[in-house]
Amino acid sequence: MEMILLFGLLFLFIFMGMQVPLALAGSLVVTLLLAFPYLDPIIVVQKSVGAMARAWPLLTIPLFIMLGEIFKVGRMSTRIVDVTNIFVGRLPGGLAIVNIVSSYFFGGISGSATADTSAIGGIMIPLMKKQGYSSSFSTVVTITSSTLGPIVPPSVLVILISWVTEQSVGMLFLAGYLPALISMLGMIAVAVIISKKRGYPRQPTPPFREAVRICTDALPVLVTPFIIVGAIVSGLVTIVESAVVALAWALFITVVWYREFAWRDLGTVMHNTVATTAFVGMLLALASAFAWLVTFSGVPQQVSDLLVQYNVGRFGFFAASIAIFLVLGTFLNAGEVVLMVMPILFPAALSVGIDPIHFCMIAALAMVIGNVTPPVGLCLFIGCAISGDKIEDLIRPLVPFLAVMVAVIVLLTLVPSVVLWLPETFGYVPK
Amino acid sequence: MHLIRKLERSVHSALVFVTGAITVAIACVLLLQVVSRMIFKYPFAWPEELAGFLFTWLIFLGASVAYRSGSMIGIDWLVQMLPTRARAVINTLTSLLMIMLLMFLVWKGVETTLKSANSQTTVLRFSWAWVYAAFPVGFSFLLASITLDFLANPKSANTGILEDESGR
Amino acid sequence: QEFTFVHASLNPAQHADFPVNMNFVERVQELSDGRISFKVFDSGALGDERQMVEQMQSGTIATARLTPAALSGLCSGISILNLPFLFTDGQALLDAVQTDEFKAICDDILISAGIRPLSYWWMGVRDLYTKEPVESLEDVQGMKLRVWEDPYVVKAWEDLGTIPTPISFSELYTSLQTGAVDGAEGWAESYNSRSFYEVAPHLTRIGYVQIASTLAISESVWQSLPTDLQAAVQQAADENSTFALETFTELQDGIYTTSAKVATVHEVSDLEAWSARSTGVYETFAAEHPGAAADLLTQIVESN
Ligand code: NA
Ligand code: NA
């Protein structure tokens, strides 16, 4: 009963237009005052501050966000696009594929989908339009491929998931490469079919010497993902420290190597970093207070009892969870969904015998779809802002891409070994 | 009103500067951790605690920065579908609720801060009150910004974005 | 009048300490004739230990088992329980917490901070596990070890000639695997249950710290209880301390039998030398806690 009040108020406040962190706090405070008179509401302050002060892995968030911002200011995304073009530009629908593959690589540097949309989309959408691609197709390719960003490590979303579920960030990071690769191949297939049908052009391959020059020039950017992951896997640094090493590297190449960082850019970088980090942090802080009350009322226990009682099995549970992630993801941002439902679903998933890493990865894949679906899709909004398209015009072109993404989720649910193979290679023992 | 807006803008710039400095400080603390391990082969225990303390201040002081730069937007599509009168009523109600909520949270934050004064952190042994103070302080700035927006425009939603920025 | 207590356990229900928690909970229910009932939260569901302490101060959580680390923020003298090679066995530790000196430096301070210690648990000993075999003090020189974050323990390992490395417990397996650390100190139970033997196949029995815990009740909850129920709770807690000693004594022997099947278990011949290196930490502790705490330390050292 208290939980109906809590979640009812939460959604009421959200749909009244209250910012999600404040809606979390508001529903929590009102529920505490009405339904739990014996609990002191200072628990809200204690839990939200406590969560921030002891959140060692979360320190990577401002660093990975700043890394993405620095790479947005410099011409790093152009370099990634140029190199990708050499290898895949000659396929039918060359630029669309360049767009998709570039997002995979940029995802290996940036922690978020929105950074990817604005960095890659800002270059690719105008370029594709100039080559005769329809505006809506260019935007749709951009935004769907930018959902690879949070799946390829590093990823702020995965850091949040690991924080909520207490799974190793390193193992979760490793688990992301193959699912993202398969999603990427699926998106490329769709893009090629559509491009062939519409006769979109192939890209001329640059002459060999030019190609070599482009690759050499881009080398410092291209090694960045290997620095991040290499530093972790080699055991030289921990995940948290890898973020700072990567950031130092990013600063070194933009400021010293390429000399493309003007000091006036520093203001923009810092402002965007602080604003994004603070928003994510507020969400985390208040969601952990919210999750506390949910736990205190015994909901996770009731959910897993119900599951055992109705004996839904692993696939039944997966199907239900994916549906919840997809539905909530269309209304809320991925981070918000993680913080609200993972504390309930994750323990239940373990109780029906699902591997923790497998579940976390499927959850991440399902949630990022929400980034591109209206009414609330951050990447969708940014993509439209760049291309000037209307959201309604994108819904039909989105369908084939969404279908591929859902198909990938189903495939990975049925074949857990694809997700778990890399973590296992590095010593993970599946449940 | 004009003067208060101007003051708020200077406070906002100051907050951007301070939170930016905190972010740099976090990066430096972590860098020190790496360097101390790799070069001196001698890591310290305090960076983790200090970084957590800095992170808390970054988040709560950054709250109003996030609000002002439009990163903290609410979901407005449902309210947008309503007729103008109803929309105005909902927007006013939402703003008032947010203001009351923030006042309550600031009050509870002060209470928590005072209560935690004699509890010390594990490694650096400073009082937890220094950590908890981030909550009421940060939320006071957010409260001030939202209240100003409400007073200036009681019938519209609080997006935090100042549309008349260039006109002044 | 009836009471519903919230009892919080940091560890999941499968953990070895959970039955000891439940022994206390069930005993309180019996002795109070059901007038006190419990809601039990395991796996740190209500927060980490520091947050549990705060929730006990505000009365949200009634009872919990807390480690000295969690309480040292309120009462730094409790760190005496963590000093390396100080207590010879579990009974020595349980005797020390009964002294007037200990009550003055810990219990009284905790009560005024809103946490009332009911009784103490002995939970076994901390050993050393490493990638390379360790059979003497010489073998650990220069090793990078993951050490638990108590400042005195860190200093002791420095004095022993190692490089203590702060790494979160959840990253320990990978850190051992990649060689970011050469080993770690800790309870052999987690060595077995977390499969650390796969990446650090050598366990050395040094038993250098007697693991202590405080079974505590929120002072505001305590004050709300009538005297007969206070007596029931206290009796259950006293019995629970004995139950813990028996349970963990039996467990500790079983742990090594299990370890021997999956890893090489070593003993050191020069344990005296290890222990002698720890006197520096005692001096630091005494200097930082003059008065009753320093006196207690001297007493224990002399009785050894
Ligand atoms: Na990424
Ligand atoms: Na893209």
TrEMBL record, chain A:
Topology class, membrane: Multi-pass membrane protein
InterPro entries with a match to the protein in the record: DctM (IPR010656), TRAP_DctM (IPR004681)
One Pfam family, short name: DctM
Transmembrane segment boundaries: 49-68, 80-98, 170-194, 214-237, 243-261, 273-295, 315-332, 337-354, 360-386, 398-422
Alphabetic keyword roster: Cell inner membrane, Cell membrane, Membrane, Transmembrane, Transmembrane helix, Transport
Domain of life: Bacteria
Residue ranges occupied by any TRAP C4-dicarboxylate transport system permease DctM subunit domain in the UniProt entry: 7-417
One cellular-component annotation, GO: plasma membrane
Family: Belongs to the TRAP transporter large permease family.
Protein name: TRAP transporter large permease protein
Annotated organism of origin: Silicimonas algicola
From TrEMBL, chain B:
GO cellular component, one term: plasma membrane
GO biological process per UniProt: C4-dicarboxylate transport
Signal peptide extent: none
Keywords: Cell inner membrane, Cell membrane, Membrane, Transmembrane, Transmembrane helix, Transport
TM region(s), chain numbering: 12-35, 50-67, 88-107, 127-152
InterPro entries linked to this entry: DctQ, TRAP_DctQ
Gene Ontology molecular function terms on file: transmembrane transporter activity
All residue ranges annotated as the Tripartite ATP-independent periplasmic transporters DctQ component domain in the record: 26-148
Chief place where the protein resides: membrane
Keyword Lyase: no
Membrane topology, from the record: Multi-pass membrane protein
Subunit structure: The complex comprises the extracytoplasmic solute receptor protein and the two transmembrane proteins.
Function: Part of the tripartite ATP-independent periplasmic (TRAP) transport system.
Family label: Belongs to the TRAP transporter small permease family.
Protein name: TRAP transporter small permease protein
